[in-house]
Amino acid sequence: MELFLLSNGKLSGDSQLLGYAHQQIKAMFEARNITSAVFIPYAIIRGDYDERARDLEQSLGIKVESIHHSAVPSEAIEQAQCILVSGGNTWFLNQMLHEKGLIVPIQRAVREREVPYLGWSAGCNVATPSIRTTNDMPVRSSVVLPALSLFPVQINPHYIDAHISGHMGETRDERLAEFCAVNPTESVVALREGSMLHVSGNELSYYSAKGEGFKVFRHGQETQEYRDTRALSGLVPFTCV
């Protein structure tokens, strides 16, 4: 299995999508001789699918075709060398994956044919068991459908633990603690901007372009920050490095 689960698509000052992870992504492309990818853009609500596909082509140096051009989207997944899943609105993305009949084809492509999956922001969220730890608003439906479950633990992308002046609502830490209190058998990995989890084969690694760590939220346990994935060794079926 090959998963790149990125908190976000760009860092401040980046000129290219996924620029902070280019070294790892392009090394994987070269090792697997990947020259094309299918792009799943449904999370983008106020943007142009084809324009984003062109941005990815320029950034990654491979041919990128948006799945919305396919008459039978599941067939595009069956023929894909690589799957790219955009950020945007997680609720809308997950609903569209179900409506387009793409959940099982993506699962089979990644698990059985070992097609690499690259998802950022919303695309990272839907790779987990559910989208319950997204930061997004349900713009169309409030029904929480299962997600792809490619990664076995909930992720909260765009994680920030700063206290915003004048904000009187709950902090992100408080919201994630609430999730764990209501779901005490589940954990949440909180990824800051410019960071990612990478599954390659049976190994799980972590990278942060800014040298920052990730946090793990568990019910009844103190939340801590980590810089390697050994903290997840009891939660995931991968070798953590």
TrEMBL record:
Top-level taxon in the UniProt lineage: Bacteria
Gene3D superfamilies (UniProt xref): 3.40.50.880
Keywords, sorted A to Z: Hydrolase, Protease, Serine protease
Biological processes, Gene Ontology terms: proteolysis
Hydrolase among keywords: yes
SUPFAM superfamilies, A to Z: Class I glutamine amidotransferase-like (SSF52317)
Molecular function GO labels: serine-type peptidase activity
Statement: the UniProt record of this protein carries the keyword Protease: yes
PANTHER family in the cross-refs: ALPHA-ASPARTYL DIPEPTIDASE, PROTEASE S51 ALPHA-ASPARTYL DIPEPTIDASE
Protein family membership: Belongs to the peptidase S51 family.
Name of the protein in its database record: Dipeptidase E
Organism: Rouxiella badensis
